[in-house]
């Protein structure tokens, strides 16, 4: 019965994801989010939506290269160990700008408030945003406020947009990942996601983990000051390192190989993920970055990262390779390999 069948060319089909309505997985930063953009938003935008897709766009105005980004924050709970939706909104947008190599300058802040939310909580969020903006050296220059009824929201949602300026010659984008590049990370992984999860009703557990939310543009500036031709930067937020590396591999048409022993997953995060059946590589981060740099620059960039407070735990975790383009694999402690897949939906909804 099997005569004439070419098993080597068989592939496992992806799961059917034909949803007639939005589900939580569409907001997870994984494959379902990508499908929503590719098959719904971009066709709807038509020519008006042309351009590279990413967390930040580089545009030119009056001969000046600007970085422009927007983001929305719906994290639950609004206050969590190490931060709140307020500083998360500022730092998240600052970091999207920084991942293009830009110096962040200005932010907008728009609020959707649920009727009945305590004014004291809104005041805490506003104060956290102001403190985070001051610490990052950016100004909150415009905004908007809307209120929805008690059944239409969940406390406070925040939308921010940011503008930054790029120095001449800076070109940092996923398409620039090149075979041979060293893959670097600035520190421990999975911290933010576990910190938020640790205080949710029904899944509380004692971890002692605090969110790593922080502005990363100072760290990026230190990396660029080495003179290295940094090819790619990415802050692995929704979908974690797995989603970010898969997106980069596909954009550049290269493969990525990781060493599992080199991945900096702290014991508290590893224990929480083991307990809940989560993959630490798919857990969100908010104060870490990934970098692809030429191999002859890796040591200098790592030294610069380690000299900065937000990069003290920096290390090399992998290599960009010409094999298996568009795919990320990890070499296990036993010498085998496993595929690090793009998350389909959402491991941890409402995490940022």
Automatic annotation (TrEMBL):
CDD domains: HypE (cd02197). Residues 179-324 form the PurM-like C-terminal domain. PANTHER family: CARBAMOYL DEHYDRATASE HYPE, HYDROGENASE ISOENZYMES FORMATION PROTEIN HYPE. GO terms for biological process: protein maturation. It comes from Mangrovihabitans endophyticus. This is Hydrogenase expression/formation protein HypE. InterPro entries: HypE, PurM-like_C_dom, PurM-like_C_sf, PurM-like_N, PurM-like_N_sf. Residues 55-165 form the PurM-like N-terminal domain. Belongs to the HypE family.
């Amino acid at each position: 019965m099997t005569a004439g069948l070419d098993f080597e060319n068989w592939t496992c089909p992806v799961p059917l994801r034909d949803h007639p309505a939005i589900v939580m997985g569409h907001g997870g930063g994984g494959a379902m989010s990508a499908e929503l953009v590719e098959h719904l938003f971009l066709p709807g935008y038509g020519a008006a939506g042309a351009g590279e897709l990413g967390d930040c766009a580089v545009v030119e105005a009056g001969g000046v290269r600007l970085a422009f980004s927007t983001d929305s924050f719906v994290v639950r709970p609004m206050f969590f160990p190490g931060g709140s939706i307020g500083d998360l909104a500022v730092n998240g947008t600052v970091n999207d700008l920084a991942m293009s190599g830009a110096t962040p300058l200005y932010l907008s802040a728009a609020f959707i408030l649920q009727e009945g939310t305590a004014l004291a909580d809104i005041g805490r969020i506003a104060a956290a945003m102001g403190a985070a903006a001051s610490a990052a050296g950016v100004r909150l220059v415009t905004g908007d406020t809307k209120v929805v009824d008690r059944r239409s929201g969940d406390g406070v949602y925040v939308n921010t947009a940011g503008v930054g300026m790029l120095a001449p010659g800076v070109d940092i984008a996923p398409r620039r990942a090149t075979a041979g590049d060293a893959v670097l990370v600035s520190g421990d992984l999975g911290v933010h996601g576990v910190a938020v999860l640790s205080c949710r009703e029904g899944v509380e557990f004692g971890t002692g983990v605090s969110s790593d939310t922080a502005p990363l543009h100072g760290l990026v500036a230190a990396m660029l000051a080495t003179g290295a031709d940094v090819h790619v930067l990415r802050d692995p937020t929704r979908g974690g390192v797995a989603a970010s590396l898969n997106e980069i591999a596909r954009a550049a048409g290269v493969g990525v190989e990781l060493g599992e022993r080199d991945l900096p997953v702290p014991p508290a995060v590893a224990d929480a993920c083991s307990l809940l059946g989560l993959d630490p590589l798919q857990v969100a981060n908010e104060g870490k970055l990934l970098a692809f740099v030429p191999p002859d620059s890796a040591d200098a960039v790592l030294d610069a990262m380690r000299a900065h407070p937000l990069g003290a735990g920096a290390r090399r975790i992998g290599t960009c390779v010409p094999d298996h383009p568009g795919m990320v694999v990890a070499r296990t402690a036993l010498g085998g390999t496993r595929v690090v897949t793009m998350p389909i939906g959402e491991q941890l909804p409402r995490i940022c």
